[in-house]
Amino acid sequence: MQLYYSPGACSLATHITLREAGLPFELKRADVKSKKLEDGSDFLAINSKGAVPALRLDNGQVLTEGVAIMQYLADQKPEAGLAPRNGTLERYRLQEWLNYITSEVHKSFSPLWNPAAGAQVHEYTRANLEKKFDWLNTQLAGKQYLTGETFTIADAYLFAVINWTNFLGIDLARWPALRDYQARVSARPKVQESLAAEGLLKKAA
Ligand SMILES: N[C@@H](CCC(=O)N[C@@H](CS)C(=O)NCC(=O)O)C(=O)O
Fold first, then answer.
1. How remote is the CA of residue 191 from the centroid of ligand 1, in Å?
2. How far is CA 43 from CA 38, 127, 144, in A?
3. What separation in angstroms does the CA of 44 have from each of 34, 41, 58?
4. CB-facing half-sphere around the CA of 124: CA atoms within 13 A
5. Which of 110, 120, 184, 205 has the lowest CB atom count within 10 Å?
6. What Rg, from alpha-carbon coordinates, does the chain have?
């Protein structure tokens, strides 16, 4: 399998999922602005939506949309415990989280990446995100991971998007349960490997 990714983008969640599942894969870096791959070829020919993540399967098909890809991967390796079995209430609970993260958290960051959105939109966006963080902080209090004691693909996804606070100067200290959760997920060996492979670990001085 080949994962089309951009360093630090939401594709980090799929990258973490691949490593946590122990599945073999190759990384293919895409420039989401120019829509080019490293060899200069056209990323739009891989994913006509122009977005990462995209996963080329061994049968040549390309799967897009992070939430679909991560569930596909988790189901390839059920013994890794990254998603409860399909059809169980626990699986729908996981999907409840995945849908919340994708629609309420992930995309709520978007205007902050666009200088053209202007100060007023940025101010509104930050205030809106802060409300989401308030709620997430209550949900994470006393819990190891989103669905309880087990790390799942929802944690890979929330980690990848919350990680953006590092680049946007948003201090998670205001949300201690969320801050501690972020540190807990970050410390996982496969998460560290993924961050290193994407060049996201700070070099030791
Ligand atoms: N609906 C897609 C959205 C993915 C997405 O927003 N990817 C961003 C990076 S985090 C991207 O590639 N943006 C470039 C673009 O859409 O032009 C998914 O959930 O996988």
1. 20
2. 10, 34, 37
3. 10, 9, 19
4. 7
5. 205
6. 17
Residue the block writes with tokens 């801050």: 179
Beta carbons of 134 and 104 less than 8 angstroms apart: no
Which one of 32, 55, 198 would you pick to mutate in the ligand 1 pocket, going by the greatest count of ligand atoms within 8 A of its CB?
A: 32
What are the tokens at 120? Answer: 């007023």
- The owner of tokens 């990848």 is 160
Running along the chain, 205 residues long, what does each successive block of 10 average in pLDDT?
Answer: 98 98 98 98 98 98 98 98 98 98 97 95 97 98 96 98 96 98 98 98 64
- pTM here is 0.97
* 196 CA distance to ligand 1 middle (Å): 21
Q: Which residue type sits at 43?
A: F
Torsion of CA 94, 102, 58, 36, to 10 degrees: -170
